[in-house]
Amino acid sequence: MATLPPPMSYEIPSITMESDARLRTIWLSIIAAFLFNMLPWHDLQGVPDLVALAVLFWSIHQPHRFSVGSAFCAGLLLDAANGVLLGQHALACSALAFAGNELSRRVLGFGLRAQAFHVVVLLLLAQALMLAVRIAMGGTFPGVAWFASSLIATLFWPLASFAHRFGRQVGRSADPSN
Amino acid sequence: MEAHTPPLFLRGPSPFVRLLFFGVLSLVLMVFDARFGYVEPLREGLLWFSYPLQRVAALPGSVFNAVSDFFVSQSRLQQDNSTLRRERLRDAEQLLTLEALRAENRNLRALLGAREPIASQSLVASIAYVGRDAFSRKVIIDKGSQAGILAGHPVIDTGGVIGQVTRVHPLLAEVTLIIDKDQAIPVRVMRNGLRGVAFGTGDGSTIELRYMAMNADIAVGDLLVTSGIDSVFPAGLPVATVGRIDRDAALQFARVLCTPTGEPGNNREVLIVATEVPDLAPYPAEDGTAPRAGRSGRRGRGR
């Protein structure tokens, strides 16, 4: 046993696991998504829900840092700010975070294009969940065009991925211990 | 070596357990919000977090507006000025007669022994942002209870009634537009005084006059104005014009679709008519005893 080298920290392939992002980064990005959502849009048709995208992004990239509870909080804040049924976005975001956590390894194994396919399906499912809840509470179907916002939000996925990769490179070069 | 072993399984409860917990929590919140309205304090607290964010999000727009206002050309200003002057002249005549008509109306009402019409003041507010919800039509305005806004106040624009304040916070207020599916407004046909109640259809542009008899005297192009019968909306504000009438014999009522005269959701500035929201008579209890307190705060609540 004495001949064994001491345990070394080695780079884990980024496909299976990423180094932990700082919590500050995660929450700053969520706040940025919030700001985007709360811009005084003239018409909300097709405006992507970037908070949902950010929740999904971090739950896939950082499943141990960002989980259902954090997503729930983000969704609840979104509900309160928009004056909608309290819990509607919270439920959708929780479900998104759960799916993201569960599928994290699988999704990160793919290239960006295949990742985007996963993302669009998950976002559409989250919207369908909100739709089901609202119809159960007596709402009306807002039309198929409502789902367009998920398709548009998916276009932001590669951008978010590039920004994330870039941020990590900058962070690594700035931090000599890494 | 054991000391370096990472805690493999100390990650708290499994994701599924968390999902179950927070999913049930969301459902409970939704039911409490929709059916009982118990979660208003929580919403109030959360808004204190989102309010600064909203202010920051509004910054780019207001900076852009300020800059474009600053660089507006002189010819444009002159043009605006002459248009406004012309409009003012045109309105002045009507305003002058309005004062006389008001006085006359007051005297006539006194003669008839009728109640005074609701006194009102108005308050300009701008729309801060549009509520992000495909299932309801709401806008958030940048004034709240600190400016004297109460839940129930009517909201108008230059064309007519566009909505009603349904929830007030100290610095913000939520306005449910009349095109919202759950928003109702008592109206009468200007031409003949036929009363009815108009509801939003939820399709984003029309409202529907419900419970109109098949043979009701109503025609395409009729102007609907507020009837004032609810003591919330002042009487006589234009609401909508009748756009289409389907008299299908298979149905019990005629289907009357109307187009709002205002532009709900298309304005930056709105006017809140600060009427005195009356305390309604106590809601009759089911067993006929012990009436509950007035429910004026929940009137016309839409979602």
Shape of chain A: globular
Mean pLDDT metric of chain B: 82
- Give the largest interface: A-B, 51 and 51 residues
**Biggest beta-sheet profile of chain B:** 6 strands, antiparallel, barrel
The average pLDDT score of chain A comes to 84
Supply the CATH superfamily name of the largest domain in chain B: Rod shape-determining protein MreC, domain 1
Low-confidence stretches of chain B: 290-303
Radius of gyration of chain B: 25 Å
Compute the number of structural domains of chain B: 2
> What is the assembly state of the chains in this entry?
heterodimer
Straight-line N-to-C gap of chain B: 60 Å
Strand content of chain B: 25-35%
Gap between N and C termini of chain A: 29 Å
CATH class category of the largest domain in chain B: Mainly Beta
Helix content of chain B: 25-40%
Report on the structure:
The complex is a heterodimer of chains A (178) and B (303). Chain A is mainly α. Chain A has one domain. In chain A, 65% of the residues lie in helices and 0% in strands. Chain A contains six helices and no strands. In chain A, α2 packs across α6 and α4 packs antiparallel against α5. About 4% of the residues of chain A have low confidence. With 303 residues, chain B is of the alpha+beta class. Chain B folds into two domains: 54 residues, no CATH class; 162 residues, Thrombin, subunit H, CATH 2.40.10.340. Chain B contains three helices and twelve strands. The N and C termini of chain B lie far apart (60 Å).
